[in-house]
Amino acid sequence: MAAAVVDININEGDTFKMSLDLWSDADNTLPIDLSTSTFEGQFKFGPSRVNMTIEVVVPNILNISVPYANMGMLPDTGKYDIDQIVVGDERYRLIQGNVKVNHEVTR
What does DSSP say about strands 16-21 and 53-57: parallel, antiparallel, or unpaired? Predict the structure, then answer.
């Protein structure tokens, strides 16, 4: 299965939060049960990487966050991805994309 490609804008110096709701049908009535999987995600800015914290909420929602302390002094652009790790240590890329950074100007 190919990963979804979603480009995002983030704010330098802010706590990053994103939520993904995963459904198995177009009408969003059949949730995908994510409770038996684990997830890893990172932003990559050149050689630097920023790890995401990913929590499964109810069976089909992922809450993704990075504390503001890890979101400072970022370059203009980067990339990110989130992987799903299922039983048996199989790994699947769930979502990926480019990142544009809105720089902090008030500090």
Answer: unpaired
Alpha-carbon dihedral angle through residues 44, 45, 51, 52, given to the nearest 10 degrees: -80
Boundaries of every domain in the chain: 4-102
Whether 54 contacts 95, CB under 8 Å:
no
The answer to whether residues 38 and 30 touch, using CB atoms and an 8 Å cutoff, is no
- Answer yes or no: CATH 3.30.565.10 is held by domain 4-102: no
User: Which of residues 27 and 106 earns the better pLDDT score?
Assistant: 27
Beta strands in the chain (DSSP E): 4-5, 8-11, 16-21, 38-45, 48-51, 53-57, 61-66, 77-86, 90-102
How many C-beta atoms surround the C-beta of residue 31 within 10 A? 15
DSSP 26: T
pLDDT in tens, 49-91: 999 999 999 999 999 999 999 999 999 999 999 999 998 889 9
